[in-house]
Design a protein that fits this description.
By secondary structure, the chain is α+β, with helices and mostly antiparallel strands. 26% of the residues lie in helices and 44% in strands. The chain has an 8-stranded mixed β-sheet. The longest helix has 12 residues.
């Protein structure tokens, strides 16, 4: 039986000094059009498998502290399964401009954002 925590996709986070300058490069690289939004004090652009972000140091460092974004089909089940396997919830499930998210520290130290419906 497949785990409910199966990761459907991984989004790489990249802090950039100038979001407007960086977006065209990543659009060309991926063949995707950027989707821009703001969250937690930073401005972001989702471009293919990249999540670019820019903003004041304090806000950007909070976003940069997460290694990657992991998309899952069932967020609540994935969080429950990860916690049962030893992960620690750093930020509980909450709504975002793009669905719902939770931030977990894996038992081996990595911090990841989980997103899903």
């Amino acid at each position: 039986m497949m785990s409910v925590m199966a990761i459907e996709s991984v989004v790489v986070r990249q802090r950039v000094e100038n979001l407007d300058a960086a977006v065209p490069f990543y659009e060309k690289l991926t063949g995707s059009t950027a989707s821009r939004f703001a969250f937690a004090g930073v401005t972001l652009a989702s471009v293919g498998p990249f999540l670019l972000f820019s903003g004041p140091d304090e806000a950007a460092q909070r976003v940069a502290g997460v290694a990657a974004t992991l998309a899952v089909a069932d967020l609540d089940a994935a969080v429950k399964e990860a916690v049962a396997a030893g992960a620690e919830v750093m930020a509980a499930t909450s709504p975002t401009p793009n669905g719902h998210r939770a931030v977990l520290r894996h038992p081996y130290g990595g911090v990841f954002e989980y997103v899903g419906p």
